[in-house]
């Protein structure tokens, strides 16, 4: 570092805090260590009685924290991500729309194992609102060797962006409600309204609900009826347990759908089923979805709405983090549920 006249410090980096004192009004830091001095700052420093200040001498191949943080953020960002201006070395990445947050956590780990630089993100596969801060970058010291940032840029070039947002689609959803007690009108359907509300909240719409008895052929016919009218996702409620008259899985099979997974390592929601027919997802929901605020359905639904095709390994991975605390005051998704 070196001492220079304030008038000659334009564009230089302050290497110590500058305290401002206004008797009876203010005492505190006016300029922080690491601040890059602007033309406007010079007059303010002179007003504070500063004739000379200590600055860092910049060297070729060395980056200031603001430049380093911004370069990291730019290579880390994918689609529907915005950047903040650098602030004391930190750059925030924000969602540009409501959608499903995706994090390339394999590449993220390769970056964070390097010295003196870091990127922190929210968890992958959660729904975020427009404007949500989803990640932040910064270096640990005030300056860093440029080659370390170039290594991060190489990782992102080779492995793609670190973080992006998949916009949520508007899907046409069909509901099949099983159970002879509902079909005959002995009890009022309470499952359908729960599903309708979740579909509405995520921005899609229910185009038709069909009531059927506990009958394999009726379930199969209902699946195919909904496909014929353009359903892009079909949700079958009830009939997913091990009782002899719980025939939903058999009905989905008879409709010609390929079952990807029957059962999930998630509580609540272990009896969850997912199948596909003609690339259209068919979900079999256990009764817990009606009674519990958050279940396996809330983990899988946003991914389908964002356009993902769910694979069996997507389900099996949910076991680590698949136990819900059933908190009295639910904070999902700001909790461990569904996060491996």
From TrEMBL:
Could you tell me what this protein is called?
Molybdopterin molybdenumtransferase
Q: Does the keyword Magnesium apply?
A: yes
| Co-factor requirement | Mg(2+)
What does the record give as the reaction this protein catalyses?
adenylyl-molybdopterin + molybdate = Mo-molybdopterin + AMP + H(+)
Mention any Pfam family matching this sequence.
MoCF_biosynth
Question: Which keywords annotate this record?
Answer: Magnesium, Metal-binding, Molybdenum, Molybdenum cofactor biosynthesis, Transferase
Question: Which pathway does it operate in?
Answer: Cofactor biosynthesis; molybdopterin biosynthesis
> What InterPro entries would the database entry show?
MoaB/Mog-like_dom_sf (IPR036425), MoaB/Mog_dom (IPR001453), MoeA-like (IPR038987)
Biological process GO annotation list? Mo-molybdopterin cofactor biosynthetic process
Q: Its Enzyme Commission number?
A: 2.10.1.1
This entry's Gene Ontology molecular function terms read:
metal ion binding; molybdopterin molybdotransferase activity
Q: Does the keyword Repeat apply?
A: no
Where the record annotates domain MoaB/Mog, the positions are 174-306
Name the job this protein performs: Catalyzes the insertion of molybdate into adenylated molybdopterin with the concomitant release of AMP.
Q: Which family does it belong to?
A: Belongs to the MoeA family.
Mind telling me which GO cellular component terms the entry cites?
cytosol
């Amino acid at each position: 570092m070196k001492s220079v006249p304030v008038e000659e410090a334009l564009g230089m980096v302050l290497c110590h805090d500058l305290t401002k004192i206004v008797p009876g009004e203010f005492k505190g830091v006016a300029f922080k260590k690491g601040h890059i001095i602007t033309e406007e700052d010079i007059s303010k420093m002179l007003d504070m009685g500063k004739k000379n200040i200590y600055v860092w001498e910049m060297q070729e191949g060395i980056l200031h924290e603001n430049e380093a943080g911004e370069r990291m953020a730019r290579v880390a960002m994918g689609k529907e991500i915005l950047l903040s201006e650098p602030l004391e070395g930190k750059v925030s990445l924000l969602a540009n729309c409501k959608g499903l947050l995706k994090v390339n956590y394999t590449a993220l780990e390769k970056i964070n194992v390097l010295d003196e630089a870091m990127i922190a993100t929210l968890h992958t596969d959660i729904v975020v609102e427009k404007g949500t801060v989803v990640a932040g970058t910064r270096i640990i010291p005030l300056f860093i060797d440029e080659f370390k940032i170039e290594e991060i840029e190489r990782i992102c070039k080779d492995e793609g962006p670190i973080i992006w947002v998949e916009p949520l689609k508007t899907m046409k959803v069909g509901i099949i409600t099983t159970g002879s007690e509902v079909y005959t009108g002995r009890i009022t359907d309470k499952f359908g309204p729960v599903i309708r509300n979740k579909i509405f909240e995520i921005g899609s719409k229910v185009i038709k609900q069909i009531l059927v008895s506990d009958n394999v052929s009726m379930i199969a016919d209902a699946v195919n009826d909904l496909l014929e009218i353009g359903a892009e996702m079909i949700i079958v409620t009830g009939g997913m347990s091990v009782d002899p008259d719980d025939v939903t899985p058999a009905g989905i099979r008879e409709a010609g759908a390929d079952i990807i997974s029957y059962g999930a390592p998630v509580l609540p929601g272990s009896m969850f089923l997912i199948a596909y027919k003609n690339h259209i997802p068919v979900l079999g929901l256990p009764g817990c979805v009606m009674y519990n605020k958050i279940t396996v359905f809330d983990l899988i639904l946003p991914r389908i709405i964002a356009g993902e095709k769910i694979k069996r390994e997507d389900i099996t991975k949910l076991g680590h983090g698949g136990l819900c605390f059933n908190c009295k005051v639910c904070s999902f998704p700001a909790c461990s549920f569904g996060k491996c």
